[in-house]
Design goal:
Radius of gyration of chain A: 16 Å
Number of domains of chain A: 1
Largest interface: A-B, 15 and 16 residues
Helix content of chain B: 25-40%
Oligomer: heterodimer
Shape of chain A: globular
CATH superfamily of chain A: Aminohydrolase, N-terminal nucleophile (Ntn) domain
Shape of chain B: flat
Order of helices and strands of chain B: HHHHEEEEEEHHEEEEHHEEH
Number of strands of chain B: 12
Structural class of chain B: alpha+beta
Number of helices of chain B: 9
Distance between the termini of chain B: 72 Å
Helix content of chain A: 25-40%
Radius of gyration of chain B: 28 Å
Strand content of chain A: 25-35%
CATH topology of chain A: Glutamine Phosphoribosylpyrophosphate, subunit 1, domain 1
Number of strands of chain A: 13
Strand content of chain B: 15-25%
């Protein structure tokens, strides 16, 4: 039902998430933001079971900020991703596992941009592009076909639009709009919302 | 037939004429204990009876009245086929995680709705409490004021909602006493969401909509969304962990019907009367179609001065008025066609 996508370029990461908050068959909100800002240059995109997403994402968010307060410097994206994965793994075999699928996107001043794919079984993979949700089945092959490691920002946004159009055309559920954000060495930038009208 | 042989059905009938009524029931812990005082039983065939009997009186008090799953029952009372078929309902709502069996099958039928507009927040709900297919209470209150400027709509299990509203009211009052200012609606929603989180995965079902007006005294809050310089706020909090801020919410089994009416007419510039009339119309249409919503409609209006309650209105009248209108329209149309 929900959809997340991330594309890493040579010096940026582009991420997008759909805006629907649904409860069984009803869309309760059309402008719901599924991205959580962990720090100035790290975004966590979180989808999954209703309450688990916000609870887990906010927990990670507060812990990352606590690290900054205690140590005076921020966690790198790789460290934040591993911290997140460790938490997921710890809760996995408890009585209350978190059923959440995540994308962590960040820009490290030394290592550059990074996109990390995590799922509810606490697997972690650093990937050049990734997607979550049923929509991923439809869009991963588009990404496979057109992705190049040296994409420019406009090309990445075009690639994102291609994915959105394919969803609009073939996905059974209506996902009218997507929040789009870009992370680079300057920080997190809000791009224009991707809205797709009727075909 | 096999069943009759097992319980010696015929022999019971034959012996009925010579039955005695013992004064004191046997001390043995078998289900047929209490039947021995009733007709059609005798001392010899202790295991055989066909009257739905108070078997619960033999069980430990903790299990009083509770329904165990069908599988357990069939394993236990293999010698009492009549008992199993007659006392237990055949179709139980199967609960995914049932550590403690439910006392009776619960149902979550309701229609509640709330929306923000230029004149504040309007909340409306029906008044029917249903329980496994029958109306347990036709005049229940689903809109519960929490404090002078915060109102909560309840959907889900009535008992859970009533309890959690009281707990929330207590916690908000404690916050106000400790910190000297009222907690904002957003904070109240967050508090409720965090209080309900430990119960995730259990049978607890609370889907509350909090409508409030945050005064200047609540201090700086995170108002990321523009609410057009108004201090009203509307949150949907569910026991599964959802917490959403929005301009329009409808919750319950009748909510899809209400949504379709509200989506057509609700916009920011409504007057108070227009808002009241569309809310009433939405609840009426939902009660018309949804079996678990009905009876009357309650309406609360929240503004900077607090909440005001409109008198409860019986929708039965509205139904008859509509019927009259339709009949009138039909006769009018017929007259028009005849005159052509």
């Amino acid at each position: 039902m929900e959809y997340l996508i991330g594309i890493q370029g040579p010096d940026f990461v582009l991420v997008a998430a759909d805006n629907v908050a649904a409860s069984s068959i009803i869309q309760m909100k059309h402008d719901y933001d599924k991205m959580f800002k962990l720090s100035e240059k790290i975004l966590l995109l979180c989808v999954g079971e209703a309450g688990d997403t916000v609870q887990f994402a906010e927990y990670i968010q507060k812990n990352v900020q606590l690290y900054k307060m205690r140590n005076g410097y921020e966690l790198s994206p790789a460290a934040a991703a591993n911290f997140t994965r460790k938490n997921l793994a710890d809760y996995l075999r408890s009585r209350t596992p978190y059923h959440v699928n995540l994308l962590l996107a960040g820009y490290d001043d030394t290592d550059g941009p990074g996109l990390y794919y995590m799922d509810y079984l606490s697997s972690l993979a650093k990937a050049p592009f990734a997607a979550h949700g049923y929509g991923a089945y439809l869009t991963l092959s588009i990404l496979d076909r057109y992705y190049r490691p040296d994409l420019s920002r406009d090309e990445a946004v075009d690639l994102l639009k291609k994915c959105g159009e394919e969803l609009n055309k073939r996905f059974i559920l209506n996902l009218p709009s997507f929040t789009v954000r870009l992370i680079d060495k300057e920080g997190i930038h809000d791009l224009e919302k991707l809205t797709l009208g009727t075909k | 037939m096999a069943l009759q042989d097992i319980c010696n059905f015929q022999s019971v009938f034959e012996d009925s004429l010579t039955t005695e009524y013992p004064a004191v029931p046997h001390g043995k812990k078998i289900a047929s204990n209490y039947v021995s005082g009733l007709p059609f039983s005798n001392n010899k065939s202790l295991f055989h009876f066909y009257i739905p009997v108070a078997e619960y009186l033999d069980e430990s008090p903790i299990q009083f009245g509770q329904i165990s799953t069908v599988q357990n029952c069939s394993a236990d009372s293999s010698e009492d086929p009549f008992l199993t078929s007659s006392t237990l309902p055949t179709c139980l709502p199967f609960a995914s995680s049932q550590s403690v069996p439910l006392p009776f099958p619960m149902a979550h039928g309701t229609t509640t709705l709330a929306f923000m507009f230029q004149g504040g927040v309007l909340a409306a709900a029906d008044t029917r409490s249903s329980c496994s297919g029958l109306v347990a209470c036709p005049a229940s209150q689903k809109i519960l004021p929490i404090h002078s400027h915060l109102v909560g709509l309840t959907s889900g299990t009535s008992a859970d909602c009533a309890l959690w509203k009281r707990i929330l009211a207590r916690e908000l009052r404690l916050y106000q006493l400790r910190h000297g200012r009222r907690l904002s609606t957003s904070g109240a929603a967050k508090l409720l969401s965090h209080m309900l989180h430990p119960f995730k995965g259990t049978e607890l079902c609370v889907a509350a909509t909090l409508c409030g007006w945050d005064g200047g005294e609540t201090g700086p809050g995170s108002r990321g969304e523009t609410t057009k310089n108004q201090m009203t706020d509307l949150f949907y909090v569910c026991s599964d962990g959802t917490r959403l801020r929005g301009m329009l919410f409808s919750v319950g089994s009748g909510s899809p019907y209400a949504y379709s009416i509200l989506d057509q007419g609700v916009h920011w510039g409504l007057t108070v009367d227009e808002a009241k009339s569309i809310a009433r119309e939405a609840v009426y249409r939902a009660t018309y179609r949804d079996a678990y919503s009905g009876n009357c409609v309650d309406m609360y209006h929240i503004t900077s001065k607090g909440w005001t309650r409109r008198n409860r209105e019986d929708l039965k009248e509205e139904y008859y008025r509509e019927k009259e209108r339709r009949k009138h329209e039909k006769t009018e149309r017929r007259d028009v066609t005849f005159s052509d």
